[in-house]
Design brief:
CATH superfamily of the largest domain: Vaccinia Virus protein VP39
Distance between the termini: 51 Å
CATH architecture of the largest domain: 3-Layer(aba) Sandwich
Bound molecules: S-adenosyl-L-homocysteine
Oligomer: single chain
CATH class of the largest domain: Alpha Beta
Low-confidence stretches: none
Structural class: alpha/beta
Helix content: 10-25%
Strand order of the largest sheet: 9-8-7-10-11-12-13
Number of domains: 3
Number of helices: 9
Largest sheet: 7 strands, mixed
Shape: globular
Length: about 450
């Protein structure tokens, strides 16, 4: 039964936190979700949306604050949709992420005996993003805007810095805004599907400081290309690559399928532990480098390699996990659906002199079947799928291949749970380690270790 009215102000105590980081107040059993509130807080809120089964409230006033409440350091936090948890202390964020994994695996999945370790966090959880995808637009007065989207919208909040991107990215964002205004470069208008520059994407090698700037265009040509390249590279000599990417479709997908290098190299490099990686513009590369090192080291430990194992690395991207495993394995096979990423993986293997690797472009569910037919028998399989998890046919073939150990890295523990449940008859879930790859957001990454029962 609906127990609140729209636009009325109420008071209540927050009893729970959703996985989106919204506090929950209950009127009888009817829930009201209120962003930016924390468990045990007494708050005053205004109801802004009423539905049959729930309502949404806006925080008006915190009457009794949680001891975990902190002042968000970002000036744009109230409007921006980028971060959701800056009002929660970092220690409590890590606990919240662990609790989320416990709720899923212990309560929903009823795997109460599985140890779920503390979330591996960052020492300094700021400036961690090595990739920024900054939308470009104009405001009502026709001025060029760059920044991030307002929560649940595509309105751009014009910004001059973002605390989770690094100083170079902030500097290039501001310089680009000025240069585009100077040369009157038309920004893209999403509703009308008109205008030119849609996004500016900036990638940075964390340990090399190499920078790549990509202008994503609704068109084929950037006017004043030479002047823009000159102005940017003079101000930022660390830029080693500038590209145009062509995205002329009416879509939310940021990058198109084709790009052209207009300055410098085709790729930038970064290092992870002893390995060097080439990173192109279309390939997936983990966003948070220091946490990626912790994630991969944990994955390597779970793989427990002695040097004799055949390893399959599914959803391998540019081969990062594969190459972490290769020095400790007999042979590593990697599969990935983006052909450019497989090209990067092959050159990464060559550059790091890891010749005991084979990389194949294709869907993991198809290629694993092919490998099975070729008689490849893996001892260890690592998987790291996108948010939607693994294809059911992939899990079936994986089960039939019967590796001793599966190391499952996931950016979405609910699809990970679904996939692990399919493997349960033949595998024991030994333990899970959550890793915080995206501080101040609600995302949680997990690594699960599974062992064959027979
Ligand atoms: N293990 C890599 C990449 C993980 S991201 C790393 O740590 O960097 C997930 C990857 O899965 C992306 O590169 C994406 O392109 C790829 N992918 C998505 N669907 C796929 C499929 N069906 N088969 C193979 N790869 C897929």
């Amino acid at each position: 039964m609906v127990l609140v009215k729209k636009n009325e102000v109420y008071e209540g105590k927050v009893v729970d936190l959703t996985h989106e980081g919204h506090g929950v107040i209950k009127q009888e059993r009817y829930p009201i979700f209120i962003p930016q509130t924390l468990i045990d807080e007494e708050v005053q809120y205004k109801v802004i949306k009423v539905k049959k089964n729930f309502a949404i409230g806006k925080l008006m006033n915190v009457k009794t604050a949680s001891p975990d409440r902190v002042t968000p350091p970002c000036d744009y936090y109230q409007q921006c949709g980028g971060c959701q948890l800056q009002h929660l202390s970092y220690r409590a964020q890590l606990e919240m992420k662990r609790k989320q994994v416990i709720n899923l695996f212990h309560h929903k999945g009823k795997m109460t005996e599985v140890p779920i370790h503390d979330t591996i966090g960052m020492d300094d959880p700021w400036r961690y993003r090595n990739k920024s995808q900054i939308p470009v637009g104009v405001n009502r007065e026709g001025q060029l805007q760059m920044g991030f989207y307002r929560q649940r919208s595509h309105d751009i909040i014009d910004m001059d810095h973002c605390l989770i991107q690094n100083d170079d990215q902030n500097g290039i964002m501001n310089a680009t805004k000025k240069i585009f205004a100077q040369y009157q470069i038309p920004a893209y208008n999403e509703q009308k599907h008109q205008g030119l520059v849609r996004h500016v994407v900036i990638r940075k090698g964390y340990y090399t400081n190499e920078l790549m700037v990509i202008f994503v265009l609704n068109g084929k040509k950037l006017p004043h290309e030479h002047e823009i390249v000159h102005a940017l590279t003079t101000q930022f000599p660390q830029i080693v690559s500038i590209k145009l990417n062509f995205q002329t479709h009416k879509t939310n997908v940021i990058m198109g399928q084709t790009s052209k290098t207009i300055y410098g190299e085709d790729v930038i490099q970064d290092t992870l532990d002893e390995l060097t990686f080439d990173i192109g513009d279309l390939s997936f590369y983990q966003i948070n480098v220091t946490q990626t090192q912790k994630l991969y080291r944990q994955a390597l430990q779970y793989a427990n390699l002695t040097g004799n194992e055949v390893v399959l690395d599914a959803y391998c991207g540019i081969g990062t996990i594969s190459l972490f495993m290769a020095p400790h394995a007999q042979h590593v096979y990697g599969v990935e659906v983006v052909p450019e990423a497989i090209e990067d993986a092959k050159s990464n293997a060559r550059n790091n002199h890891l010749n005991n690797t084979t990389f194949v472009a294709g869907a993991a569910e198809d290629v694993i079947l092919q490998w099975q037919q070729e008689g490849i028998q893996p001892d260890v399989v690592t998987v790291d799928p996108p948010r939607k998890g693994c294809d059911a046919t992939f899990i079936e073939t994986l089960n039939a291949l019967a590796p001793k150990r599966i190391v499952y890295v996931s950016c979405n523990p609910s699809t990970q749970l679904r996939d692990i449940e399919m493997l349960k008859p033949a595998y024991t879930l030994k333990e899970i380690t959550p890793v915080d790859m995206f501080p101040h957001t609600t995302h949680v990454e997990t690594i699960a270790l599974l062992e064959r029962k027979y």
